[in-house]
Amino acid sequence: MSDLTFNKVAGALLATGLAVFGLREASSIVFAHHEPEKAGYAIEVAEETGGAAEAEAPIDWGTVLPAADIAAGEASFAKCRSCHTIEQGGANGTGPNLYGVVGARPAVHPGFSYSPAMIAHGEEAPVWTFEELGHFLEAPQRYINGTKMTFVGLKRREELINMIAYLHSQGGQIPFPAPNPVAPAAEEGAAAEGEAAAEGEAAAPAEGEAPAEAAAETPAA
Ligand code: HEC
Known about the structure:
Cytochrome Bc1 Complex, Chain D, domain 2, binds heme C, 9 helices, mainly alpha
């Protein structure tokens, strides 16, 4: 092959190579340039449904009621007075008179026009137990959807307990329940002492890459 022919062939190969390369580049620009499938981020809609109190363990009414502060409950009944009387034979106002409400059936106080929601609730849960009152007074509209008691609720547990003890002292029709023998406090003692003994892998000897420089020395002729 003459030098000229070689140059022609080499030139042709080079040109072809360039053309192929160029095409690939061009097509990758045109086609391969796609955006990531989801150009967004998962938005965590962590809906906070419960108040702080609800996250706690359920109240053991049999344990807390005998220790409750009835006078403190009476004092916070000021929050209820704009709508309720509690004295025996007291008048209905925006809300019904509450004498003897603990242990009564919901929505039956004479002369008061209850919401359909409260009447329906009385069919499902026919007694105002301590537990029922606890749920209701903590968040009235959340517990009885549609109630016309427009009161935000007693969020502090201590206040809630004292309030219900006070309501009970005003003509309560059921006794305090027996304490639950399984004290809820026991759970807290079992604080996880799990020492994750992360077995740190004893430094594995790094594989020494012995640079086997095989000095292929061509013996001098
Ligand atoms: C803004 C007025 C208002 C306030 C404040 C209010 N209530 Fe009520 N309450 C009502 C109304 C109205 C009803 C009747 C609800 C219905 O029919 O849905 C009611 C119902 C009740 C019932 C059920 C009575 C029954 O006969 O079944 C209880 C118990 C109760 N309230 C306790 C309280 C307590 C305790 C407080 C204070 C911490 C309080 N309420 C604050 C208006 C109020």
